[in-house]
């Protein structure tokens, strides 16, 4: 078996392609606007075909999910029944927490949050990567007023933020992503900490900002802090404290948090059309 | 002729992209989906040679990059390289290879592509691609993609005007001219 001779043309082609790829990576990582616009334009061209395919493949996907998740749905159902029983018992206690939250909202002048403009969008696709399960796609974009970094909520609370908004679609980065950090406030205390994701199906964690002396207990509700630098509006429920771990070395409390927002089986989400003042200024400039 | 190949190639890439995004993103085994666009690069290198493999890999990688949170160009870089390497391997072995060997090489190439993707990602772009699920993703994605490799080889053979297996490097002997 003789080895064929390769001409230098194929090597030259490869070199050009590799160079182009590295250049693209570099430009995209720096947020070079023409590249971003090119990406949006390409996605807009493909979108109608995706919509058509979605209509065709949706029943197949649903059938597969119901087949493959049958066992887990039964387990989930049993778990939910148990949790419902516990929650009914717990109701009296949580009523107190809700009152606390309402009082805190008044205290922080967050009463107008209910009037925050929102957009409801359909979840059009789950993550399309094996390596980044923290992204979902929604069927609305800048045309509906959605901008980069806007908060996204589902039933129960905050679930993520907007990334790469296109004209009629956008991506949502879920808060379960370990790279996402959110300033949170423990309701009933004045403690503000930094909450981070911990992977799909894992509880969230607050590792910074809560001193040992803070009176944080299991069952406390965490809401977005709404501090000046935070991209999220304040007062949106993020999770409840599952466990409090005392870090004797750093004299801080680490909190294990059960997210209140729904992540599984999402069909519709709500985007809060809120931009912090600094983002608005940057965009206007 | 080149224009026809180009149009056919773009058609196959677009079709596979739609399948990847709309169907296989939901049909997962153990939470893992097939890497069909990487499969396109591999099949293209096998059927079209190193240059075609690199170019098709670049375009298919760029197409899937549009929908990933990783920087634009990371998949293009990986797939172009894998397409080129498979093109070289095909030149060496394709003369008398059987389908099963081609399939094994393709599955190995998918695994290689995933490893290279994560290495490039960790080195130059996205430092969190390597995670505790990497082993599972590597094995399941390679085997799952392998199921579709015969179809992808068939499609790319159609693009490059080749038969579905063997012989695209096979030289014609004199008796065939007479």
Low-pLDDT segments, ≥5 res of chain B: none
Sum up the overall morphology of chain A in one term.
Answer: globular
The top-level CATH class of the largest domain in chain A is Mainly Beta
Largest sheet of chain B: none
Radius of gyration of chain A: 23 Å
What can be said about this structure in brief?
Chain A is 36% helix and 25% strand. With 285 residues, chain A is α+β, with helices and mostly antiparallel strands. Chain B contains 7 helices and no strands.
How would you characterize the overall build of this protein?
The complex is a heterodimer of chains A (285) and B (178). Chain A is built from four helices and twelve strands; from the N terminus they run αααββββββββββββα. Chain A is of the alpha+beta class and 285 residues long. In chain A, a hairpin with a 2-residue loop joins strand 3 (151-154) and strand 4. Chain A is globular and about 70 Å long. The model of chain A is unreliable at 107-113 (pLDDT under 50). Chain B has a single domain, classed as Arp2/3 complex 21 kDa subunit ARPC3 (Orthogonal Bundle). Chain B is built from seven helices and no strands. Chain B has helices spanning 2-24, 36-48, 50-65, 74-93, 99-125, 134-159, 174-177. Chains A and B meet through helix 1 and helix 2 of A and helix 1, helix 3, helix 4 and helix 5 of B.
